[in-house]
Amino acid sequence: MTPEPTPQELLSELSELMPLFFKPHPWHGISPGREAPDQVQAYIELVPTDAVKYEIDKQSGHLKVDRPQLYSSFCPSLYGFIPRTYCGPLVGHHTSETLQRQEIEGDGDPMDICVLTEKPITHGDVLVPAIPIGGIRLVDKNQADDKIVAVMVGDKQYGSLRDISHLNEATLDGLIHYFLTYKDMPSPTRARKVEVAAIYGRNEALKVIEYSLQDYAEHFHEPSARMERVLARLTRA
Questions:
Q1: What's the CA angle centered on 62, arms 35 and 119, to 5 degrees?
Q2: CATH level 2 (architecture), domain 23-184+192-232
Q3: For residue 188, is pLDDT > 60?
Q4: What is the reported pTM?
């Protein structure tokens, strides 16, 4: 006669079975990478050929159409976010301190990331291993909206870069131009809402990512650990 499984064995089996039957939520269910923030796993929403802007639906985890790209705005890199990050109080406070301004807040989204590669990845909803080399500090309506700049691991053209100062100036200018203009209708009288407050290197990028990881843990109270506690209670019921 087969003995009844122990609660710990049931917990272990449930943990193994859940990812076989259910696709993880890209924001909450996927790891930022075992080596984060030095190397991260980026979830890609948008590729350079996309004529519409896709972004994650925070409730379902599916990609959704946010809006058509305006006019000639095409993102010049892979674009997405780092899973299990959150731009909250720590990110906002760090931006306020760095810029010596008051009351800048995190924008309440995961940390955005641009991943440079020579390879033509043709669609989003993919995971890309990436090495942060710096970032673009955007301030959008008094909210921190940093864009981490990274290179795809092993990429022949960009993979050896380790700091944004080594990046081709035209490539960086293309990223800056996109983020300054992709929301704007062309109007000579309309004030620009988005500001590039700084360009920073790898060390600062690692610090910003680390703050966003801490903000996530504080805001969502470590969902993976909470899931383990729920499963453990179920096995004891």
A1: 55
A2: Alpha-Beta Complex (3.90)
A3: no
A4: 0.88
CB burial of residue 176 (10 Å; 0-12, 13-18, 19+): middle
Q: Which value, in Å, is the radius of gyration of the alpha carbons in the chain? A: 20
Kindly state the average pLDDT of the residues 71-100.
93
pLDDT in tens, 141-166: 899 999 999 999 999 999 999 999 99
Contact indicator for 35, 153 with CB cutoff of 8 Å: no
Distance between CA atoms of residues 219 and 215, nearest Å: 6
Tokens of 131: 């090495």
What whole-number distance in Å separates Cα of residue 2 and Cα of residue 22?
29
Taking the C-alpha atoms of residue 128 and residue 115, their distance in angstroms, rounded to an integer, is: 8
Place of tokens 């100036």: 169
